[in-house]
Amino acid sequence: MTYNVKIQRKLLNALFDIKGSIRDVKSYLKECVKSLPVKPSSYITQGNWKILYVGPNHWILLAPIDQEQQLVSSLRPHDCPASISIVLISDTLTFFHIDGPDAFDIISIASPINLNADAFTPETATFSEIFGLKALIFRHGDGFQFAVDQSFGDMVSNYLDLTLAN
Amino acid sequence: MKNLNRLESGGRIDRSKSLSFSFNGKLYYGFEGDTLASAMLANGLHVIARSFKYHRPRGIIGSGVEDPASLIELLEEEASGNNLCTNVKLKEGLKAKSINCWPSVDFDVGAVVQYFAKFVPAGFYYKTFKWPTWHLFEPFIRRAAGLASAPKEPPKKGHFESRNAHTDFLIIGAGPAGLLATLMAARSGAKVFLVDQNTEAGGSLLSLKLNINQKPAMAWVESAVKEIANMSNVTHLQDSTAWAYREHNLVIINEREVENVSIIERSWRVRAKNIIIATGAIERSLVFPNNDRPGVMLASAVLTFVNRYSVKPGDNMVLFTNNDSVYSYIKDLKTAGINILAIVDSRKHIASAVLAEAQNVRVVLNSIIRNVNGYKKVNSVVVQSLVDKELETIPCDLLAHSGGWNPVVHLHSQSRGTIKFNDRIASFVPDQFIQNSISIGACNGTFTLNEIFNETKSLLCGVSAHSKPLVYEGKLECSKQSYSIEALWSIDLSKEKNKAFFDIQNDVTHDDIQLALTEGYSNIEHVKRYTTGGMGFDQGKTGNVNIIGMVAKEQGIDLDDVGTTTFRSPFIPVSFGSINGVREGSVVLPFRHTPITKWNLENGAFMYEAGARWRRPGYFPIGGESFQQAVNRECHAVRTGVGVYDGSPLGKFELKGENVGEFLDLIYTNIISSLEPGNGRYGLMLTDDGLIFDDGVAFRIDKHRWFISTSSGHSDAVYQHMLKILAFDHPEWDVKITNITNQWNNATICGPLARKLLKKLETDIAYDNGSFPFMTFREGHIADIPARIIRVSFTGELSFEINVSPRNMLVLWERIIEEGTEFGILPVGSEASHVLRVEKGFLSLGHEVDGTVDPYDLGMDWLMSKKKLDYIGKRSVHLRRSLGKVRKELVGLLPNNPNDAIPEGAPITPDGKKVATEGFTTACVWSVVNERWVGLALLENGHNRHGEEACVRMKDEIIRAKITKPVFHDSDGKLLRS
Amino acid sequence: MLLIHCPFCKNRNETEFVYGGPVGANRPDPNLVSDEEWVDYLTMVPNPMGPVYERWWHARGCDQWFIICRDTVTHEILENPSEEP
Description:
heterotrimer; B: Ubiquitin-like (UB roll); FAD/NAD(P)-binding domain; six-stranded mixed beta sheet; 23 helices; 27% strand; elongated; C: Folate-binding fold; three-stranded antiparallel beta sheet; two-stranded antiparallel ribbon; 5 strands; 11% helix; globular
């Protein structure tokens, strides 16, 4: 192994794409989400959920897949007001976990984003590039997690294999 | 092992580690710490290569990246093309061979070229392009002017890598200036990158024996390197060249020796807040006849081979100079046992302090080298006095020369910084900085150690990338040095018969430059192109300034007015592999899979890319079936029974908000906003210049929610288009768009038996035509899977597009195949899908829609709303049509001979004559329902020509076809609504 | 390779963005302009040597379209351009 890392391709997470003004979203979600991240490209955790602020008026709620149905019931994507859009997108992204001392190296091979601690803080969550693809990236413990368009999952697996090849 | 020319002691080589290598099949030995060049010289090898154009024997001239001559090819495990042997680190078992010579480097038949040189002058290529014909000379020139061949196999071991980094400081060069800058920046706590292209740090101090604080300078270097190694904020790369300086302080570095052995080379893209360029200077050649003979070397290279590699390149030496630097070498050269016969100095006077260093050495002032004797090795030089023109021949085996020093301004210039000529050092130095960088030390024209340190300290004070100021506390007392020069771009070469080279790599001589000037190519960029001087792998590192000086002299103008040619990246040759990184093998082309990819492969699908990187099944051949047999079978299933098609790649978007209806009315040509929930409409999107951009369907889910689908290959473009309109034209609208392309996969069942299959699959959705008509969608379950079923048809048959989440796609697919077996269901590939849509005359992006057609051209003007005041493209379509010009319009083609296939793209001309085309074939397929070939074409005035004959003009024949309506099956659309 | 400042994501590599051309005139109401004015709107875009306002889409980032002012000669991205597009 070239790098001291453990790479896992994860199965599904429950993902909800949430769009709307911060006021509308906050008030609509107040029963299930205590607060929203307000710093651009950051996330907060609530229990085993993550709420990521990934674009202007755009959040992603990430939760374990076994809570998907429960979240559909409480977020009610089908009948939220016109000013808010909530769309179930669990299947759109495939996640990779990169753990271990060399996780930084792997991401710096895959992505041009600045990973230095002052630029990419423990709270950072952002869309950037992984192997030329749009990817959601955030820190996870000492390592990183990233997610790419599910249809590119096999290609990214191959890329990671090539990166680690002897 | 004993090397012929190896000194008894000294040097920065490890004599306990002997390494064997082979050159042109012969075995030699060197030591750890050698380059291939130093090991070759140690073994007495002096003819390394043959020159590019004249095949003259060439030896080692420089000691590093500046060497213009010693190209070799590495073999076997290290296989790579054109390497400078001065840049190749010696390794055990290294195998190298000469290039550009046949049968051998010692006896090269190509060398006869030099006797015909006057027939191959500067500008030869350009002239033969015009007359008589380049093709006459091309094969010969290409063979003769060969470089190494590219390796035939990819490297057997390891892979390349490319990575990114961000830093506060990037310091390029680990000589005295770069090291001091690194200490200052690193001690402030800033994040620092230090890169240097040598195998070890020290720069000029590796060769010059100077003192810092009364100790050898290398002791200071070693302590600095040690301190840096213990700082976690510093990344220190040796054997790594910064070869490109791009926009916004991005520098690309090629790391040749990676600590991790499975990485052959690594490329770094470093984005730095501050860049400190400390790239040193390169010694300039002098120009005199036969200045390319093996044994004629740069003086600094001789010193480097002696001091750093403990190799004596010759026994009896003459030095030729126009500046002070060689005088400081005398002591070291003598210590090495080299007999210095004379120093030939072109200057009239030199400082007495400089002269004092030449005790017991004959110094011949106001003189030049008039000629060099010897073919494969120098055997004597001819010295000429500039006063009385008297000639004196001095036998020797080594001529070392120095024409002064060129600051390495390449990266500064690549950063778009400007340069100016400096008279004091007779060379170009940085002037204006455009990006956030500074140049320090020799690359800034500062040549003595004391001045270098002082300059570094004072210039870094002004840098403020980091909160803390940069300071160096501690004394730095250095050996005394001085430097002065009198420019000598070339000795007087009028009436000279022998070749005097300005650019040794490209064999550019004095005559070539004269010819360029005579023929009017006086701009320096033209001189470069006409003569090739300064091109090639060395980019004129040792010779370019001489060419500029020569042009200035001939025209009687200043060097600043001549200027320099553009310094381009790469600074040194870089392997493609390193730039490319890990992108090789299976990922050379990006690819996307749907969840049933594995099923497709297991069921014999022939897979290839079909737009937007989707790797899709083209067709599913059984046994020994041909392409056409497999496609026909799949089409037949859809037309007579049922087929299933994986339509997952279709672009899909959910739109939500108060203004979605208005928005869709703006981007589609027809009215979408009036749809009731559950219903949809086929629509066209145009660009604002009135041409078709995409087609797809839009469905309303509820009052404020809609979904649309786009063609698979165009979903990213449509997404971009929609967001751009919302951002700039209608920021006041409330429309939120979510890309759900990969949230919904679909299996489309199509064919007259589709409804029977649906029944068998079991669904809670009422699917009779009355309750679930064409162009509606329903949500519910099928085979216990949550699904959204849409009644659209891209085949013209009864179709149900069953959308499920990707996690359920394979289960659904296998159920469909299982339950469909009794109806003879077949999986349908993209080829059959293409046939089915052509039979119906449905448009396809990239075929009928090529960015030049509007809805009228395709007979789809019925989709253009007359009620809407505006939609994207409306004004332009009407404006263009009001001009009344002839348009190419969509028609069907029935070849007169039903077995004649027309190649897609084939041109149609009036009567098949060799005149301008009047159209072209956009598609042609074997129609299973018509049992003949049918085609579609865009043809001038085609709508009015039904019934006439079109002539497809092929290379050897004309295919005649009847022009028809562009539909060959179910022309009134009963089946798809059934 | 430019380093582009996205209003939401801060400095990012050029490869994350899609270029959307220089900022031309706003789209007029097509029913209120002459043929010439319409054609001008479609075809006339600024193309200076020097600062120009241009559109970029952060395709591999926050999905936002935004405008920057870039000097076409030096590539400098002006943080406080003198006039609005």
